[in-house]
Amino acid sequence: DAGVIQSPRHEVTEMGQEVTLRCKPISGHNSLFWYRQTMMRGLELLIYFNNNVPIDDSGMPEDRFSAKMPNASFSTLKIQPSEPRDSAVYFCASSVWNSNQPQHFGDGTRLSIL
Amino acid sequence: QQQVKQSPQSLIVQKGGISIINCAYENTAFDYFPWYQQFPGKGPALLIAIRPDVSEKKEGRFTISFNKSAKQFSLHIMDSQPGDSATYFCAASGGTASKLTFGTGTRLQVTL
Q1: Residue A100 is nearest to which of B51, B99, B105, comparing CB atoms?
Q2: Strand partners, B93
Q3: Which residues pair with A77 in a beta bridge?
Q4: Percent of chain A with pLDDT over 70
Q5: DSSP characters for B17-84?
Q6: DSSP B96
Q7: Which chain B residue has the Cα nearest residue A40?
Q8: pLDDT at B1 over 60
Q9: In what order do the strands lie in the sheet with B62-67?
Q10: First CA to last CA across chain A, in angstroms?
């Protein structure tokens, strides 16, 4: 079975540019989560969806961040405009909607904003 | 109340030794407690999980001990191996949501 697929794996761009991160969840999973991981703040939940609907976006740092899930097999996280402090590893995870179901993580996108 | 506190931040154990990582939570609505293992360049992967109706769960060399009254749970890695060197995260969730609250992580190094 294919796991959660994220692209790109690495992204280096200049401050002010738009960045789009992509995620394909595991087929059959109806919950999708976006996380950000840094040394200083650890693993932070940014936003999560259930059945393609955003449920909780309280972790999104500011209006420069937006996320969409147009269908069950695709989600994007967009940063516009990007800033150096957005540099981090961004993970997408998916699961079946239930408190006792594990989340399956992708291998992340390492984002560097110069 | 949503926090999960994890300790220690880092841990060095000799090969064959026991690694112990501890977590504490406040939210009594939490009813699912997984541990995730993360290797460099990879996403976290589920290692083992427990529900509060049992006090211990063992899978191979990995054991979760759960103390509901103290609101604490811990991961024990028996006969630690260099291949166990990774970052370990405890987490918790509750109710109908799949949203996990993660601990801050423990970087484990197993030396020869």
Answers
A1: B51
A2: B32
A3: A21, A67
A4: 96
A5: S-EEEEEEE--TTEEEEEEEEE-TTS--EEEEEE-TT-SEEEETTEEEEEETTTTEEEEEESS--GGG
A6: T
A7: B104
A8: no
A9: B4-7, B19-25, B72-77, B62-67, B56-59
A10: 36
